[in-house]
Write a structure and sequence with these properties.
157 residues, mainly beta
Length: 157
């Protein structure tokens, strides 16, 4: 039994973007609300855990778990007291935070000893299937995912 663990934390930097104002339930905002908006996207955390049973020296099978969280975006507009309710910049902050959990299965093909002895680059290939088990946030997709990754092992010295 072996377990792989992967964690990422991303800090997204603020900037200015061209954006229109509308409530989250209105997909097309009027062009009259378009302007350059100061935007600070939320930071994110992505954690993956993959316990695996090695069935043979070259093949393993296991479970997969992924947790993803993204903080809410913030838009700073200063004084907005004179704007109509449907053009309030606070509308852009709605439904931007996300939280999702995924469960799945995966397989990994590991490099063989024969390949290592022959001086070939040992390559490991993994394939996994993940299904969203729970989540929250207005723009959080409930989706299925297939991911294929490859790793190359080599000596530096």
């Amino acid at each position: 039994l072996r377990t792989r663990f992967d964690a990422r934390y991303g800090v997204q930097l603020e900037g200015e973007v061209v954006k229109r104002l509308s409530p989250a339930n209105v997909p097309l905002a009027p062009i009259t609300t378009e302007g350059i908006r100061p935007w600070d996207p939320g930071d994110y955390l992505d954690v993956r855990i993959a316990p695996e049973f090695r069935l043979t020296p070259e093949f393993s099978f296991g479970a997969r778990y992924r947790y993803f969280r993204r903080g809410a975006d913030t838009w700073d507009f200063g004084d907005t007291s004179g704007l109509p309710a449907d053009q309030n910049p606070a509308l852009l902050n709605e439904e931007t935070a996300q939280n999702a959990r995924y469960l799945g299965v995966g397989i990994t093909v590991w490099p063989t000893e024969r390949a290592r002895r022959a001086g070939m680059w040992p390559i490991a290939i993994s394939a996994e299937y993940l299904r969203a088990s729970s989540g929250s946030g207005g723009k959080t997709p409930k989706d299925d995912r297939v991911r294929v990754t490859g790793r190359i092992f080599f000596d530096l010295w």
